[in-house]
Amino acid sequence: MPAGNPVISNSEDRFGVFAISFVLSGEFVIARPLRVNEQIRIRQVRVIDDAGQQLGVIPTEEALGMARSKGLDLIEVSPTAVPPVCRIGDYGRLKYEQSKKDKEARKKQRNWELREVKLRPKIDVHDYEVKAKMAERLLLDGGKVKVTIMFRGREITYTAFGKRLLDRIAKDLENTALLEREAKLEGKNMFLILAPRPTPLGPPRFVHLKTDTAHHDVETADHHDDHEPDTDHGTDTDAVATIGGASA
């Protein structure tokens, strides 16, 4: 083990949660509040100074005095070690830096969220724009989007039009979206998956559309998709072809 760079175990403390991780790079990851200064009541601790150097095992009062003399804190970074490991540093700054890291981690985690936008093969132009706008907002928010076309009854014979509709939305959202998964038919649903582009190719196409009732339209379209009765008796081929093949 390299001198001056201990690896503190990720074993759980007596509260059943991780207190902190101290890796070889010298970075700390706070997972719960740590004991600081007078809260540390054990007699002796292993100390790491503010420069990252090990000072060995010394009385806690002496370590606390060293921290105070520098205007810093004595932070118990590994309460489960024997003896516990403490570091001399600025606890407020440590919490602030960790808070920023946590926010960045949450932003990256959001990229794994998968939201679904449902379409019908007979969708009209207005509802299509509402759904496309909703998908675009989710992509701009950092989430992945599953765009699903639901076929009911004899609509399953219109899978070619469904594929054209999915190709269209992928094309319309190409400034903000990458096609992560090609259109695929599973049962009576066809879907594709879009992921947000790290660097947009251009401005979003739909979110700038000024619709005072946009939120209501999204909810209405969702409700319509989920509850629309199956009235297709093979007479809507033209409607399906129009939206599936309409130019942008």
TrEMBL record:
Keyword field: Cytoplasm, Initiation factor, Protein biosynthesis
Can you say where in the cell this protein is located?
Answer: Cytoplasm
Is Protein biosynthesis there in the keyword field? yes
Broad class of where this protein is predominantly found: cytoplasm
Using the record's annotation, list all stretches that form the Translation initiation factor 3 C-terminal domain.
113-196
- Offer one Pfam family short name for this entry: IF3_C
Region Disordered, annotated ranges? 220-248
Subunit field text? Monomer.
Q: What is this protein called?
A: Translation initiation factor IF-3
Which species is this UniProt entry from? Answer: Vulcanimicrobium alpinum
Gene symbol here is infC
